[in-house]
Amino acid sequence: MSESPELSPTGWVRDQTEKILAAGTTDAASIDGRRVVLFTTIGARSGTRRYVPLMRVEEDGKYAMVASKGGAPQHPAWYFNVKAHPEVTVQDGADVRTMTAREVSGAEREHWWELAVAAFPPYAEYERKTDRRIPVFVLE
What we know:
alpha+beta; Pnp Oxidase, Chain A; 8-stranded antiparallel beta sheet; 8 strands; about 30% helix; globular
């Protein structure tokens, strides 16, 4: 496993992550004026640690990771990383902790989906433009 997590090859994601790392807090970055959380996952095959900034969806100290990929027809690469290695580091503000992710379904997924759309309304459009069921993980 690598020591330092890798930054995203996607420019705007890399820039956002670098702002968070430089400031030491996720308060340094946002998407459309909405808060983000910085997750660190472990590569499913490579074992490489990778940064993943996502929208902040939180309830009672639990967090959601929404695998929307902007409504693309395929899951984001990090989805497979979390499935293979559910232990994820979560940074919210300056608070950093390790949590365990599990993919949710049924009524629990619907509850978290509603929270996700409230936190970031574009998720509703992403859901409309894809044929796949957008996965949601809950981290505790």
